[in-house]
Amino acid sequence: MDVILVPGFWLDASSWSGVTPALVEAGHRVHPLTLPGLESRDAPRAGIGLQDHVDFVAQVVDRFDEPVVLVGHSGGGAVIHGVADARPDRIARAVYVDSGPPGEGEPINDGLPDDGGEIPLPPWDAFEEADLIDLDDALRAEFEARAIPQPKGVAVDGIRLTHERRFDVPATVIACEFPSQVLRDAMAAGEPWVGELARIKDLELVDLPTGHWPQFTRPKELGAAIVQALRDR
C-alpha cells in the first residue's frame, strides 16, 4: 500500500528515516512528507495555518489512484484527521502515533510559546517527563539539530470538520506515553477529550511504551507496529 507519513511539530520528512525500512521490507510504498513552512529554518511561515497542512496532504492523497494509508505523529494526527474528513473515501486507514483526532474547533496546542509567527522548539524542561522517556542526550542533540520552527497558525487554529463519514475511516492509535487502557477507560467514561476518537467505528488501540518521539527512541518497533496495523488491508 501507499503509506503517507506526516511528521509532528518541528520535524520534516527525514524524521521518519528510521521507521521506513520496516514498511518497505513489508512491501509498502512510503511517502514521508515535509509540510509547508517546515522546509528549512529560513522557510517563510507567516500565514500558514492548520488548514494549509490539511490541504497539502489532501493534495498528495489525490495523486494516487487507490486509497492510501495516513500515518500522523503528534500534531500530524490532527492533520491526517482533517484529511480523513475531507477525503473519507480515499483513506484506507489512519494511524495515529502518540496522537489522536481532535474534535471540531479544537487546536493542536495553543499553549506553546511563540516567537512572532512561529514556534521554536522549547527547552526540554518545558515538556512532561513522560514525553522524554528514552530520549537520551544524544537523541535530544539530534532532535535539536534538525528542529525547524513550527508555523504558529498550525498550532493555534481550530480544526474544521464537516463530514460525518470521517468516522467510517478505520483507525489505529499507537499509544506511547501512556497505556492504551487510559484511552479505553476515558472513552468508556465519556470524557470529552476522547469524544472524537470514541466515534470512530473501526478502532484499534496498540501499545508501544516509550516517550513522545518513538520514531527516534524506538524506530524499528514503530515501523513494525505500523506494519502490523496494515495487516490484511
Automatic annotation (TrEMBL):
GO terms for molecular function: catalytic activity. Pfam families: Abhydrolase_6. InterPro entries: AB_hydrolase_1, AB_hydrolase_fold, Sec-Metab_Biosynth_Hydrolase. Transmembrane segments: none annotated. Residues 3-222 form the AB hydrolase-1 domain. PANTHER family: AB HYDROLASE-1 DOMAIN-CONTAINING PROTEIN-RELATED, ESTERASE_LIPASE_THIOESTERASE DOMAIN-CONTAINING PROTEIN. This is Esterase.
